[in-house]
Amino acid sequence: MKLNSLRARVTTFYVGMLAIALLVFSAAVYFGAKTFLTRALERKLSNNAHSIVDDYVVPRGEKGDAWFVEEMGESYPPGYSDPSVRVSEGSKILYQTGDMRDPFVNMSRIPLPAKPKWFGTFHREEVSSEQQIVLYTLRYSAADGSIIFVETGAPIEPIRHALRSLLLALRLTSPMILVVAAAGGYLLMSRPLRPVVTLTEQAERVGRNQLGERLAVIPTGDELERLSHALNRMIERLETALAHNHRFSADASHELRTPLTIIRGELETLIELPSLPAPVMEGIGSALEESSRMAKIVNSLMTISRLDCGGEPMELAPVDLAEVVRVTLDQMGLLAEEKHISLGFEPGEATYVSGDAMRLKQIVVNLVDNAIKYTPDGGNVRVSVVAEDRKAVLRVSDSGIGIPAAALPLVFDRFYRADEARSRESGGMGLGLSIVKAICMAHGGAASVESIEGKGTMFRVEFPLLHVSASPDSAEKTKTVYSS
Amino acid sequence: MRILVIEDEQKVSALVKRGLTSERYAVDVAADGMEGLELSETYPYDLMILDLMVPRLSGAEVLQRVRRTNTFLPVLVLTARDSIDDKVKLFELGADDYLTKPFAFAELLMRVKALLRRGPVNRSSTLRVGELELDRLTQQVKRAGRRIELTAKEYSLLEYFMQNEERVLSRNMIIEHVWDQSFDGITNIVDVYVRHLRSKVDDGSPFKMIRTVRGTGYTIRGGNET
After folding, report:
1. When you count CB atoms within 10 A of the terminal residue's CB, does the N or C end of chain A come out lower?
2. Residue A395 belongs to what H/E stretch?
3. Rounded to whole angstroms, how far apart are CA atoms A64 and A70?
4. ipTM passes above 0.85
């Protein structure tokens, strides 16, 4: 799962929102329960106190103390009664249930009611360090003028216990809810996102291969359907533009090549004529040479333009780049030998790329030819093919005249020559490196150059690597194919 | 031998006609696809030279229709395009060979001759041009009985020359036969190899067999007429 994917971001966002909602909900439940439980306890205490006054304290005047104690003992047995009860007159205790056993509450330590502000209200008393009880004190003025206090009390502990359990339950369930929600949400998000993923994959395929295809429109009627329509319209415009480019290339090559054919044919007919004066022969020969140079330029330009616009369907197959280099260098050895240049190749592993073998070969031919041209007699040209970081890298370095730093960014441009006089003399057209670059791009690769003036130049071409396999002669570290 | 040329560019067809006529072929010219098709259905031609871009009926259509009735007529296609799919399509349509414009007439002539002969190519094990002898079995080359040591490339270059004695071979033809198209257009590789071959074959002999034809290419010639 990618952390920055839309899916992960949306899921994170809504899990965050859910967490906040859960927190608010838990707080509400907790404080609501606390208030409700406290109120219920207080109501019970006050009801008990009032019924004690009505049922036992009032009739006590007529029926006497013995009856009172007996009746109280029956309704509120000492030690067990919940709530615990104490009835007092001044400092004299008329009845009390005494200490409670379960939970143990030491009731006798609670002082007799003295403060008037407690009368008719609830207050809390500490009976021990961790025990609190709620007390309700009711003041009753008897007919004979005596003042009787009825106190009912109960420990808070059961409420606290219930609240602790509630809190625990909330703390346990919330993370579980969040985890389930996150997982569920992430899975759920894949449904609305699936068309987007499909669309992306299709668009990538169309971009790589033929523009003739169209994306399958997502018939959801929403933004995604609009997106797929928009993308299709874009592809259509691209296709039209490319078709124009293609047709232009074809038309232009036709229009240029037909006159070239005629020029060439006429000149060839002329040169066949017997007994031509030498200057005429010379002139016709020179014109013929120029016409074939022009034909080459037209060919190269068409090649570049077709590669650039992606209109050239290439025969892609796994090709061992090292083998292509080896075979090509074998065929070019004499070019180096003529200038006493040592042409070295380090055969390493078989390095497979997906490519058009003829086109890859053209890269090697152009780079090596270029290196030989710009290297003075007795220099050297090195070629290597290695797999680096999931790329197949072809390097062609020479000990030649180098390229000025200012010219480096321009060497792959069409018709660019670092050194006008020199390259014309060696027959260059300024298109070889443009073709190298165009072929690289068409293969999803890249071409770059480094150079130190007067020391040499290194061209580096890289392609996505398919795989490598060690070749048997890899032990031979450096093998000089041809040397002077 | 009667050849039909379907080519709308009048100057090109005139050149081809002139050249082929001087080689003693009978040549008819049609300026558009329709006319060409009608001619091809009227007369029994031995070869058709067809430009792909002709008016009224495109070269591809002419080719298709001709193939419906006549599967044996050799067709050499002239095209100004050179992209790979065009070529593949051509062969699928039934072309026997193609030539990309601009072409050297020597090359056109060679292909015409090859198509007309079709098969009985010189496959004998020994090629001879003048006093030069090339044994295909042992890959040995001798001039006037003296052994000449050649590298593999020089050998195939010489073999190609000797197969086409007296014919002018353009650099393009040589590259396509001895190397491959990826060497086309960039290098002076043909000149370098021919120079080396020439020094091995001709040095020390008064008669120079391998000759440069200015602007066109090279040719090999036995020394009989001098």
Report:
1. N
2. strand A391-398
3. 10
4. no
